[in-house]
Design a protein that fits this description.
252 residues, alpha+beta, 2 domains, seven-stranded antiparallel beta sheet, three-stranded antiparallel beta sheet, 20 strands, 33% strand
């Protein structure tokens, strides 16, 4: 019965943590370039239960009668990021960019290097190409991109031109999922070198790959699992309380 308490508790803990992940996905369903988080649940190792029964022999001699196995609950083994592409939304804005593979390289004002799929770009007061958070968008050489005053065109390789004249080429890099660590809602830090990528689309932004209907359905399922295990925990607690009371009364 104690194992039952532990199993119910670990299931509640896993459901509670998974709710946090789903809530964050729901909150960022409209965040451009957001990649949803998923949780992988795993069971603790099963425990083999056996019953020792006496046999007509000296006291140390016993045989093991196998009763079966009992699970000891579940836990969140890991959180991982779903890097699948989100749907593209056409905006018509010349500095809204999307890529179907890879990430745009950007630099924070403090010099930190990040990678993002949030291509809502614009000009700052100096004419530099910046993200919606004010981070500098970088070219293939790792430098900032200063745009001319006129209209610009961006091709699928990330080459920026103005009036037919070359301006810069965007740094778009692709990585394996294991190389990227989330740093903010739509920004990642890379561990190691990526490979150049392309597939740039001008006048589009990539929406979140978090499906609101799917996330809400999962949230309801997880909440019901939490409530069910809460009921199991309460029932076992009451049963143990009654057993302790009855044992106490037998001794009187």
């Amino acid at each position: 019965m104690i194992k039952g308490l532990y199993s119910a508790f670990t299931a509640m803990d896993a459901a509670w943590r998974y709710q946090d992940v789903l809530a964050n996905n729901i909150a960022n369903a409209n965040t451009a370039g957001y990649k949803r988080e998923i949780a992988a649940k795993q069971s603790f190792a099963d425990v083999l239960i056996s019953q020792q029964a006496g046999v007509p022999a000296p006291l140390p001699s016993r045989i093991d009668a196998i009763v079966g196995q009992i699970g000891t609950g579940s836990f969140i083994a890991e959180f991982s990021t779903d890097f699948s592409s989100g749907p593209l939304q056409q905006t018509g804005n010349e500095l809204d960019l999307a890529t179907d593979r890879g990430f745009f390289a950007v630099e924070a004002p403090g010099g930190e290097l990040f990678y993002t799929r949030d291509g809502r770009f614009g000009r700052d007061a100096n004419g530099d190409l910046v993200t919606s958070h004010g981070y500098y968008v970088l070219d293939v050489a790792g430098g900032r991109i200063n745009l001319p005053a006129g209209a610009v065109e961006v091709d699928s390789d990330g080459v920026i031109t103005s009036g037919g004249a070359f301006v810069a080429q965007l740094q778009v890099m692709d990585f394996t999922p294991a190389q990227l660590t989330r740093s903010g809602e739509a920004y990642f830090v890379a561990d190691g070198q990526g490979v150049p990528a392309g597939g740039v689309r001008q006048g589009f932004i990539e929406r979140s790959n978090s499906n609101l209907v799917e996330e809400m359905t999962s949230m309801l399922t997880v909440q019901r699992a939490y409530q069910a295990n809460q009921t199991v925990l309460s029932t076992l607690d009451n049963t143990l309380d009654q057993a302790a009371s009855q044992l106490g009364s037998w001794g009187r």
